[in-house]
Amino acid sequence: MKTAIVYYSMGGNTAYIAARIAKKLAANVDVIELTPVKAYPDKGFKKFLWGGKSAVMSEKPPLMPYSFNAGNYEQIILGFPVWASRAAPPLCTFAEENKELLKDKKISAYACQAGSGAKKALNGLKNLLGISEYNAEMIFNDPKDRPDEDNEKKINELCDKLLISSETI
Questions:
Q1: Distance (Å) of CA 125 to CA 47, 90, 150
Q2: Would the pLDDT of 20 be above 90?
């Protein structure tokens, strides 16, 4: 079974998890990083102001071209940082652009947060995609910036769910 990991990462936490999942799943995984045309400020007050405003206003920023053909994958894993209890807008752009193509796929998701709001963000993305549940989902707390045993267990747990799921396709 072929899997795509599609993610947006500003501070590197979401990218870290994408790389860990890809390594653990080993074969038949494509990793697709989303990049907005106009980068968000990534430091200081502006980071929170512009990122939070963009999330709260449900903005869907244009993305740099990316290579994704939904027909090539049975399983799609979406990864994003949590901004104002919402999925980061670049991931929402991808979801909106590919909503119809993702309908018959096994969709999993993971969220990286520094504070709280990930459960709400995962539910919001589920609503945007028009799905009732994820194949697998997980919440990570700053996995790259604050590594701990709990996040390592969660990575393994998520990958176990993904591998079991791939055997049923």
A1: 22, 12, 24
A2: yes
Region label for 76, one of left (φ > 0), alpha (ψ between -120 and 50) or beta (otherwise): beta
Segment 106-111 mean pLDDT: 96
Neighbours of 38 (CB within 10 A): 8
Least trusted range by pLDDT, from 55-64, 120-129, 142-151:
55-64
* Predicted model pTM: 0.90
DSSP the chain: --EEEEE--SSSHHHHHHHHHHHHH-SSEEEEE--BSSPPP-SHHHHHHHHHHHHHTT----B------GGG-SEEEEEEEEETTEE-HHHHHHHHHHHHHHTTSEEEEEEEESSS-HHHHHHHHHHHHT-S--SSEEEEESTTTS--HHHHHHHHHHHHHHHHHHHT-
